[in-house]
Amino acid sequence: MRIRTRTVVALTGALALSLVSGCAKGGSAGSSADTVTYWLWDANQLPAYQACAKGFARDNPGLHVDITQLGWDDYWTKLTASFIAGTQPDVFTDHIQKFGQFADLKVLQPLDELGIEDSAYQPGLAANWTGQDGRRYGAPKDWDTVALFYNQKMARSAGLTADKLNDLSWNPEDGGTFEKAIAHLTVDRNGKRGDEPGFDKHHVKVYGLATNGGGDGDGQTQWSTFTASAGWTYTDKKRWGTTYRYDDKTFQSTIKWYFDLAKKGYMAPFTDYNSQSNQANTQVAAGKAATAFDGAWMISTYAGFKGIRTATAVTPVGPTGKRATMMNGLADSVTKNARNKQGALKWVKYLASDTCQKTVGSYGIVFPATPDGTKAAVAAYKKKGIDVTAFTEPVADKKDFTTFSYPITNYAADVFALMHPAMQDIFSGGASVSGLDRTNSQINLILDQ
């Protein structure tokens, strides 16, 4: 075991060491030769995977899948604890944001023997789950992109048609037509719009743009679409980078412009955001915000708002002349000390198959990783009366869109621990973006160990 010297985030380091030693304790509690334990966090997807489990049982007599669903925060807390206690599930839904940490801790089982071909899935999804050793540690599950949700009534009232909202552009100097649109959608308590004389930024009734917080080190539903369309990348390599670039001037100027939207009164302030009860979607649902950048996993949530009709627009064109969105892909991973390892491998191969992917797609909850699974999802959404073009177009149109992944590096937990407070300080406390120079140096020092 490689011992690391830490100058920051001592708790993270201690946890990492506990995980490494804990993974020698044995398999998942409650698992047996005829049962595969499987964990996921999304309650909306539970029925779809229960249907897949029934299909799997039919194809594999004698094998049963026991599914546990937990909320997002509880999921990662309990999963981490299970590695320490030796009670980890056989299979779990993995997030690319966590992959670097789990790969670093060596708690995942290689999946090369499953014969997964990158070409069987949407471009880039399978390759993201390859470790630095060249082995595969996740089977593609689904994918998502980010788009701009908007309140149709508020947009009409502001004279912003769907065509206009799908033709916005931005730049870090004056914000372009995107900032103009967000300003015009903003209304103070006296009915003045953000771009009208006399607008009171201290007493806003409806913000043009909801907030999803500071964005930590990835900014998926906050600033990532802007930094990427300005030509910035998280690290020096597409995957397993060794140097972060939060000290880059393009990044910092974009971040300053983005958070200044709140200072101008156009974006909901940091105090309006709470990770549990007041996310961007609840701000839109409450009529406190006209628009919100959010991910495809939230499509059904926005469509289900009572008394509010929402639609989606593609992300704005940036200084590079292209639009950009993060394309995140989840995967299913087998734990290294799974008690029923052979059953787990069979279950993961089934999860990644077109059979299960089309089943999941038919529920119209997420976009499965295979093209046919995606088609099934698009058809299911259409049947519900939901247009998902703003999410699927970036994947199909590489000429006008740039898609990118979460940064995949070692010490992902340490990066989060440093960037989380740094970005909150900039958003909520007005700290200078130049302070990210020091944060970036600390992160790169850790990566260099």
Write structural notes for this entry.
It is a single chain. The protein is α/β, with parallel strands linked by helices and 449 residues long. The chain is built from 17 helices and 13 strands. It has helices spanning 10-22, 46-59, 72-85, 96-105, 152-157, 162-165, 176-185, 224-229, 249-263, 280-285, 299-303, 341-351, 354-361, 371-383, 389-396, 412-429, 436-447; strands spanning 35-40, 64-69, 91-94, 139-144, 146-151, 187-188, 204-209, 289-295, 310-313, 323-326, 328-334, 367-368, 401-404. A six-stranded mixed β-sheet has the order 2-1-3-11-4-12. Strands 6-7-8-5-9 form a five-stranded mixed β-sheet. Helix 2 (46-59) links the parallel strand 1 (35-40) and strand 2 (64-69). The radius of gyration is 22 Å and the shape is globular. The two termini are 14 Å apart.
Distance, first to last CA: 14 Å
Detail the poorly predicted runs: 1-29
Give the domain tally: 2
Reading off the top of the CATH hierarchy, the class of the largest domain is best stated as Alpha Beta
> How would a textbook summarize the main sheet?
6 strands, mixed
- The number of distinct helices, counting runs of at least 4 residues, comes to 17
What is the assigned CATH homologous superfamily of the largest domain? Periplasmic binding protein-like II
Write the layout of secondary structure elements.
Blueprint: H1 10-22, E1 35-40, H2 46-59, E2 64-69, H3 72-85, E3 91-94, H4 96-105, E4 139-144, E5 146-151, H5 152-157, H6 162-165, H7 176-185, E6 187-188, E7 204-209, H8 224-229, H9 249-263, H10 280-285, E8 289-295, H11 299-303, E9 310-313, E10 323-326, E11 328-334, H12 341-351, H13 354-361, E12 367-368, H14 371-383, H15 389-396, E13 401-404, H16 412-429, H17 436-447
Parallel strand pairs: 1-2, 1-3, 7-8, 10-13
Antiparallel strand pairs: 3-11, 4-11, 4-12, 5-8, 5-9, 6-7
